[in-house]
Design goal:
heterodimer, A: 112 residues, 4-stranded antiparallel β-sheet, B: 4-stranded antiparallel β-sheet, 11 strands, globular
Chain lengths: 112, 114
């Protein structure tokens, strides 16, 4: 069965600093990969998705993610974090059964 | 608002009562998914429906839980005889179908069991 691991439960980053959130997946073939963001009391908003082609994908709000097949990873990055980026981030995989398997999430805290 | 609409946003029930959660998909979407989020956990898939059909219910508890998506009206997630362990946030997502189509989420229903 497919699985998603987000090894960092919490990350604190200074405003203006760069950010990288880690995501590893377990799946035999090339999966469809997603990053979502959730603000407190809200639903999930899609940041970006990878299906095929260029392994570096651009998303909304200045986020990007890189698919590395050899490492089974799909890490999320942002060059300069803003205070409004504080939220919980979820990596998810759609392995072809039209349902999403989520990681447990990484809570991003932004310090002034 | 053309997004996924869930209601109610908050629902309080006593043990043994029934809970009904509603989801109207995004306009043009005919595929609906229900997920449950427990504290400090990611979202767990429960059920996938298309109009009038249950496609995959492998994540649904075998008892007390049911879901439907009728030809007319919203999708309903129904929990009978609720217990404390049912307290969670329940999210609905919709898509136009296909594994390469992203799912769009509603703001969820927070269910609290007294």
């Amino acid at each position: 069965a497919q699985s998603v691991t987000q090894p960092d439960i919490h990350i604190t980053v200074s405003e203006g600093a760069s950010l990288e959130l880690r995501c590893n997946y377990s799946y035999g073939a090339t999966p469809y990969l997603f990053w979502y963001v959730q603000s407190p009391g809200q639903g999930l908003q899609l940041l970006l998705k990878y299906f095929s082609g260029d392994t570096l994908v651009q998303g909304i709000k200045g986020f990007e993610a890189e698919f590395k097949r050899s490492q089974s990873s799909f890490n999320l990055r942002k060059p300069s974090v803003h205070w409004s980026d504080a939220a919980e981030y979820f990596c998810a995989v759609n392995s072809g059964y039209s349902t999403l398997t989520f990681g447990k999430g990484t809570m991003l805290l932004v310090s002034p | 608002n053309a997004g996924v609409m869930q209601n109610p946003r908050h629902l309080v029930r006593r043990r043994g009562q029934e809970a009904r959660l509603r989801c109207s998909p995004m306009k043009g979407h005919s595929h609906v998914y229900w997920y449950r989020q427990l504290p400090e956990e990611g979202l767990k898939f429960m059920v996938y429906l298309q109009k009038e059909n249950i496609i995959d219910e492998s994540g649904m508890p075998k008892e007390r839980f049911s879901a439907e998506f009728p030809k007319e009206g919203p999708s309903i997630l129904r929990i009978q005889q609720v217990v404390r362990g049912d307290s969670a946030a329940y999210f609905c997502a919709s898509s136009s179908g296909g594994d390469d189509q992203p799912q769009h989420f509603g703001d969820g229903t927070r269910l609290s069991i007294l």
